[in-house]
Amino acid sequence: MNDVADWWQTAIIDMEPGRIELRGTPIQDLIGNLSFAEMIWLMVRGDRPSDAQARLFEAALVSAVDHGPQAPSIAAARMAVTCGLPLNNAMATAVNMLGDIHGGAGEQAVELYHQVKASPLGTEAALDIWTSERGKIIPGFGHRFHSPTDPRAPRLMEMVSEAVANGACEGAFATVGREIEETLARRKGRPIPMNIDGATAVIYAELGFEPPLARGLFCLSRSVGILAHAWEQQQQGGRNKGPTPPKYRWTYTGP
Amino acid sequence: MNDVADWWQTAIIDMEPGRIELRGTPIQDLIGNLSFAEMIWLMVRGDRPSDAQARLFEAALVSAVDHGPQAPSIAAARMAVTCGLPLNNAMATAVNMLGDIHGGAGEQAVELYHQVKASPLGTEAALDIWTSERGKIIPGFGHRFHSPTDPRAPRLMEMVSEAVANGACEGAFATVGREIEETLARRKGRPIPMNIDGATAVIYAELGFEPPLARGLFCLSRSVGILAHAWEQQQQGGRNKGPTPPKYRWTYTGP
Amino acid sequence: MNDVADWWQTAIIDMEPGRIELRGTPIQDLIGNLSFAEMIWLMVRGDRPSDAQARLFEAALVSAVDHGPQAPSIAAARMAVTCGLPLNNAMATAVNMLGDIHGGAGEQAVELYHQVKASPLGTEAALDIWTSERGKIIPGFGHRFHSPTDPRAPRLMEMVSEAVANGACEGAFATVGREIEETLARRKGRPIPMNIDGATAVIYAELGFEPPLARGLFCLSRSVGILAHAWEQQQQGGRNKGPTPPKYRWTYTGP
Amino acid sequence: MNDVADWWQTAIIDMEPGRIELRGTPIQDLIGNLSFAEMIWLMVRGDRPSDAQARLFEAALVSAVDHGPQAPSIAAARMAVTCGLPLNNAMATAVNMLGDIHGGAGEQAVELYHQVKASPLGTEAALDIWTSERGKIIPGFGHRFHSPTDPRAPRLMEMVSEAVANGACEGAFATVGREIEETLARRKGRPIPMNIDGATAVIYAELGFEPPLARGLFCLSRSVGILAHAWEQQQQGGRNKGPTPPKYRWTYTGP
């Protein structure tokens, strides 16, 4: 019997009939006493944030909820609803799309920050090593749409500065982020400003989240916009809506 | 050109380079000023909750985050990670499972409450109509594991009472829920207490959320536990873990 | 121990180290002796088709593989690839979209045929009952794009006639389908011809497949087009491609 | 208008009302004339296989349809059905799980074969390079369950030999596969035989499929077993079935 019960092991939840404990605390003592953001922190890490940490964490979660129906994930949620899917399946379809290219920049930026911070060679050389190993895209900097500035990044960095002043975090990753930004501007001869992924990555790194969690937390955050758009589409109706109006269809390139 | 831009329409987000407005407010004015729970409310509804409404809403979101690796959704997240999926795909796999039976009870309970509340025939007769149309399962009441009481429900209902006292909601759906509970107990000769789906459905109905959103918000809430378990599994390792230890496999029932 | 091994039960597969039997036959005796279509039949039903049945079954599978990037499922597969998803996740994202509206028409048409066939009141009355219970859309007839005729349906019905002549099936559901077509034409004063879902539903019903399998087999068939488009997109490249060219975005309808 | 129509481009399908052409042939000329396996080949590659190529291709597709409810994908399909998901969503949930570890071995094995074949240093050295770059697992060889021999592999390799004799393929990748098998046996002092992924990878490589298609085609093949198991579970019933019988639950490892 033990080998069966041992097959799945977790330090997150303990349970018997009438008792549910999450990270060691009965669920009824969490309900009403923790904010949703604090509960997220508790669940993924096992400890609780200070008020100042929770405030910074919450800012990151709030910032990334939506980027409109042009984003493949949001578009997928809306299309899925017009195919008759209920909200859980529409949300799953959309979250599934948050892959390396659509949802992975935050994770990659945290990795970049750690690599630059740990390098004894300085930011310039560390960036060169990154580029030689991982390609020319520097995750977290520049934005193909929000030019020159992604409005979310400066606001988030302002909150990081406030958090450093409050002692909620040290600021070492904020410094790394700013150094990368300066280096890129110098190299390109024009600003390549930090975008939302770069800024949330600073926050997640400052707060001690491992790189993969930057992606996981982005998925939680974007799930909010996904739900909002799926629900709006459900109210609008529409059946089997493809990406573009039907008359445009696509271009055939075959023989 | 207009027919293309008109193909997708939304009142949720407006955008141009350097500007993102969500529900009419620039994103930089939301970051740091709204809690994550308030942001969820704003995104799916377009207005903002009062403090007392936000407190009640947050309690519902906190209560449903996890029910352990025995739940198909949590198990799926953990199995997906051992198949090599990154967190976005593992989360999607799990959220996809929150279908009518696993994630739909809250939505069905809100529908039930509305139907009972609107019935001129009283709770008894309204329950009979529900059963004749929708089957013998009364969504939101009884729990196959937490017997006699799901510890989340009484705590949530306590918070509803507090919210009624504060004027955050009217209490009409709480009354309906309690009447259903009493009716079921009388009929069965033993308590069939409200469970978490019944209690969160009271909250979502009190706060004016449409039934499908009870499922959507449950998906958001459970996504937290899904992320926590997926991440824990990623740290544990394990390759290609099936549901049970390999030696048990399954029972072959064919010829 | 038995309760664990009994938790999952199947008549499909039996296995021990070095032995795999599918539906009672060692896998090595199936490889090279069954076509892929025959294997599909064996797996979902447990028996083997005659050659004439296999030929008809294969026609249905071949007919539904693709309907272009305007279909939400195919679009989703291509978008998913530009988000960095590997083929398994891109395929899953697309198949997930084959819900009641996008992938359910075949299943609904099989249900309709059974209901009409079983009705003692005749096709006219049976159609009225269907409409009153299930809404005005008659699954399997008419096509918003292929007007007047979906080229796949006449070819499939030609093969059904051939199969009836060969004794591969009886033709009762083909008759039902044609009666519905005639009734609709008479009512509307113009042809509402059978479409691919109506024609494959005739085939699946003739061959004795239950209604849900019409959807399941459509998912298998469409998975072929999904894979082809996902792979083509992977070769084309493209990063984070939304539904329309970026400059069109969407129409904001809020305040 | 052109930029919209050009947004999605494909050489797979051309269409206008009443006309559907796949890879340049009207769909009605494909129905009844191509087997399902030949249609798969045509869709993903654009050309048609010879009879001998089709026979070998079909063997690979048939061989991988199922490995029982212990496989995470099959388990996920069955669990999904007990959560109330229709077949399309259950199939998607399962196919999603065919990630690098569960569904990627075939793709990796094709990469390995190409790398070994292209290496001027010989199989021994090429294997060392693979291990140093990609880790100690040699994809396609050894099986944790089927010991000593996966019964699918020898049968598939027999068919490759037959195909080489028929001129359907050259046999160069079969030779590479056998050399790897011999090298591993010599190094370990015991047989580490080719498994199903190694054998299907030989076939896909011999037939000229790119590595990612080995995964994509495996997803198509396994979708058959996924559908069969999902449908069987739907007929069995069961609500919210977790991985193990409820009484075993899991082991709590927290404080």
TrEMBL record, chains A, B, C, D:
One record GO biological process? carbohydrate metabolic process
What keywords were assigned to this record?
A: Transferase
Pathway the protein acts in: Carbohydrate metabolism; tricarboxylic acid cycle; isocitrate from oxaloacetate: step 1/2
Identify the stretch(es) annotated as Disordered: 233-255
Instruction: Extract the InterPro entries matched here.
Output: Citrate_synth-like_lrg_a-sub, Citrate_synth-like_sm_a-sub, Citrate_synthase, Citrate_synthase_sf
Q: Name one GO cellular component term.
A: cytosol
EC number of this enzyme: 2.3.3.16
GO molecular function per UniProt: citrate synthase activity
From which domain of life does this come? Bacteria
Family classification: Belongs to the citrate synthase family.
Q: Which PANTHER family match?
A: CITRATE SYNTHASE (PTHR11739), CITRATE SYNTHASE, PEROXISOMAL (PTHR11739:SF4)
Name listed for the protein in its UniProt record: citrate synthase (unknown stereospecificity)
Q: Which organism is it from?
A: Shimia isoporae
